[in-house]
Automatic annotation (TrEMBL):
Name by which UniProt lists this protein: LLM class flavin-dependent oxidoreductase
GO molecular function terms noted in the UniProt entry: oxidoreductase activity
Chain segments annotated as transmembrane: none
Residue span(s) of domain Luciferase-like: 25-327
InterPro entries found in the cross-reference section: Luciferase-like_dom (IPR011251), Luciferase-like_sf (IPR036661), SsuD_RutA_monooxygenase (IPR050172)
Enzyme class: oxidoreductase
Keywords assigned by UniProt, alphabetized: Flavoprotein, FMN, Monooxygenase, Oxidoreductase
EC identifiers of the protein: 1.-.-.-
Source species: Roseateles agri
Domain of life: Bacteria
Length: 366
């Protein structure tokens, strides 16, 4: 199975534990982080999308311009542009990217964030809209001639695009969401299904649900899986756990920095966040070294669980998830400029080497 490591970059330096600094769009920071990730064995960078932050399409174009090998995982919120237009925009960017583009489909993070941009659809309706949206997008990407579409959310007459994705198999579609509505759409459309960093048993359960959904749509074996973690990697296990205590103190401060989509007044009710809170209620540390305490302290408003330990220990934990069928890991660092090269230098080569050694075992024992 292929193995992919995905980092993360925002418009400027900062995270949920580091106050934002620099200009709102900090080209020097974006360039430094992107080039550091490229040198450090990462395959892509996630570029998120929120209603209050700079346009991530422009950030993606800049990242692609400033790198030569690194791909991007561009978050794309459905429902704000016509799917015919989105199909052309993404296909065009794929040409400028030399085929390095992936698109992460977002049906809606929170009601508050959607409503800031005028989207008032209910949760399940958003996923129904995404289903139709992706039907149209893929048809624009593949149709040899004009076509008409009339659906519940979109209508088009004579839709066609002369620009198709540069990648022969199309732009890979990443897709997230843990609700029943999300799983059903994922089974139909996802090339890569995205999970937050859940315990091994919950991860296996979700993978089984997505695979069953894909089979219902005649896509058995066609969905890969990406799991998102926050790494805490230090020279010793003791130092790593000491850092978790420092991080916990920061997020428990009443005026802690907020980075990304802003703070909501109530606990996020999306199913993914609910599942992380359930995991946190089971214990502060699950499996070998899955730290859930941060998710419990923050309400699991996003990617908020961490693998904690030395590089060898974290690599070993990642291999347990790979054994379940996870072939991509999304690594969002607490201190991006420090932790991105550290993880890329110390952890990624260990995981790749271990998998290569395992692949050789059957031949050596024959």
């Amino acid at each position: 199975m292929t193995l992919e490591f995905i980092g993360h970059v925002g418009a400027r330096s900062g995270s949920d534990v580091i106050p934002p600094r620099g200009p709102v769009v900090d080209k020097a920071y974006i360039r430094e982080l992107a080039q550091s990730a490229e040198r450090s064995n990462f395959d892509r960078l996630l570029i998120g999308s929120f209603s209050t932050t700079p346009d991530n399409n422009q950030i993606a174009a800049f990242v692609l311009h400033e790198t030569t090998r690194l791909g991007v995982m561009l978050a794309h919120r459905t429902g704000f542009v016509a799917p015919t237009m989105a199909a052309r925009q993404l296909a065009t960017l794929d040409h400028f990217a030399d085929g390095r583009l992936g698109v992460h489909i977002i049906s809606g993070g929170t009601d508050e964030d959607q409503q800031r941009d005028g989207d008032f659809l209910e949760h399940d309706e958003r996923y129904a809209r995404t289903d139709e949206y992706l039907d149209v997008v893929r048809r624009v990407w593949t149709s040899a001639g004009p076509f008409d579409h009339e659906g519940r959310f979109y209508r088009a007459k004579g839709a066609f695009s002369v620009v198709k994705p540069l990648q022969p198999q199309g732009i890979p579609v990443y897709f997230g969401g843990s609700s029943d509505a999300a799983i059903e759409v994922a089974g139909k459309h996802a090339d890569v299904y995205a999970l937050w960093g859940e315990p091994l048993d919950q991860t296996a359960e979700t993978i089984a649900r997505v695979r069953a959904s894909a089979a219902r749509h005649g896509r058995e074996g066609r969905v890969r899986f990406v799991l998102a973690f926050r790494p805490v990697v230090e020279d010793t296990e003791e130092a790593a756990w000491a850092r978790t205590r420092e991080l916990l103190e920061i997020v428990r401060q009443p005026n802690r920095p907020v980075h990304g989509g802003g703070r909501n007044s109530s606990l996020p009710m999306n199913v993914g966040s609910q599942r992380l809170r359930q995991a946190a209620a089971r214990g502060k540390v699950l499996d070998k070294r899955l730290w859930t305490e941060l998710a419990g302290a923050t309400g699991a408003s996003g990617n908020s669980t961490a693998l904690v330990g030395t590089a060898d220990q974290v690599a070993d934990a990642l291999l347990d998830y790979h054994a379940l069928g996870v072939t991509s890991f999304l690594i969002r660092c607490f201190d991006p400029l420090r932790d991105t090269p550290l993880f890329g230098r110390e952890v990624i080569p260990r995981v790749r080497a271990a998998l290569a050694a395992r692949a050789l075992e059957p031949a050596l024992s024959a």
